[in-house]
Write a structure and sequence with these properties.
The protein has about 210 residues and is α+β, with helices and mostly antiparallel strands. The protein is about 40% helix and about 20% strand. It has one domain. The chain has 5 helices and 6 strands, in the order H-E-E-H-H-H-E-E-E-E-H.
Length: about 210
């Protein structure tokens, strides 16, 4: 064998199941702490902005009407917290205290979605020939702002409820959902901050 050749050995006893949390610092080859710091900064910047619903801004150019979507700032903040939470997933899973604090909040998000989500109506012909509309509860989604949806409204002339396609017919529910969701993600963000502080993510190692 060439004297310059080096034998590569693998430690068969090494395990990826080690529960010891890694220590990240600015001097690591890969500094997860730096990544977490950037994600944290983004959350702070976005939450410092005014929380306002998204909306369409309409302009006319060359006799052409254009729609420009102005992003919902609540969505941007919530997405940034989700990214930070996913980034800290291993740390959360290692700590039962924080896992127990965050998981119930995430369950609240699911419950909130079920409360505000839209279910489409489907027509059904009765034996007497009458057409009725029923919600398909197996399908649930959150419509975009100003989406056209079928809703049940009371018709004064017919003195009964009828189905109508209404633009923005679910907007109030969408905004109610996002306002409530924002409150939950504020709580999640606070818990993530406590977690980051408890594991001294941004401490510096002393070097010699």
């Amino acid at each position: 064998m060439d004297n310059d050749s080096k034998e590569i050995k693998f430690d068969d006893e090494s395990s990826y199941e080690d529960d010891t949390p890694p220590e990240y610092s600015s001097k690591s080859d890969f500094s997860k702490g730096s990544v977490v710091q950037e994600a944290l900064k983004r959350c702070i910047v976005l939450r410092s902005d005014e929380m306002r619903p998204g909306y369409y801004n309409y302009t006319v150019s060359d006799n052409t009407r254009k729609e420009i979507w102005v992003t919902d700032t609540r969505d941007k903040f919530i997405s940034s917290v989700i990214a930070l939470r996913n980034l800290l997933g291993p740390e959360i899973n290692r700590d039962e205290k924080f896992k127990g604090a965050i998981e119930p909040l995430e369950e609240e998000c699911e419950t909130l979605f079920d409360k505000y989500a839209y279910s489409p109506y489907e027509s059904e012909v009765q034996s007497n020939g009458q057409i009725i509309f029923k919600k398909n509860e197996e399908i649930k989604y959150m419509p975009m702002i100003e989406s056209i949806v079928s809703v049940s409204i009371y018709d004064q002339n017919q003195k009964r409820k009828v189905m109508r396609e209404v633009k923005g017919g679910w907007d109030n529910y969408v905004n109610g959902y996002k306002e409530s969701l924002l409150n939950i993600y504020d709580k999640i963000f606070r818990e993530l901050n406590v977690l980051i502080d408890s594991i001294n993510y941004f401490k510096k190692k002393s070097g010699f």
